[in-house]
Design goal:
about 80 residues
């Protein structure tokens, strides 16, 4: 009875440690950093250009004019709600 509790506790401790490690491993490379001393928030319904990877924005986002976007992309745009 006592051995079962110790083994169950040990297994639980190992699983929690592993889950904590995987959570750290996932969130650590997604740390937020700013490239400017005084970053400004994005304007709603504005157009931006950015280079992105699977986990983060690599370069940008930079505001751009609507005229610089090709017409075929305007047709595909769906507004966010």
């Amino acid at each position: 009875m006592i051995k079962t509790r110790k083994i169950t506790g040990l297994i639980t401790l190992v699983l929690l440690g592993f889950m904590g490690y995987k959570a750290y491993d996932y969130y650590h490379p997604t740390d937020v950093s700013t490239s400017q001393d005084n970053p400004k928030p994005l304007v709603p319904n504005s157009y931006v250009k950015a280079t992105i990877s699977k986990k983060r924005v690599r370069k940008g986002p930079n505001r751009i004019d609507e005229q610089t976007i090709p017409q075929k992309l305007h047709k595909k745009r769906t507004p966010l709600k």
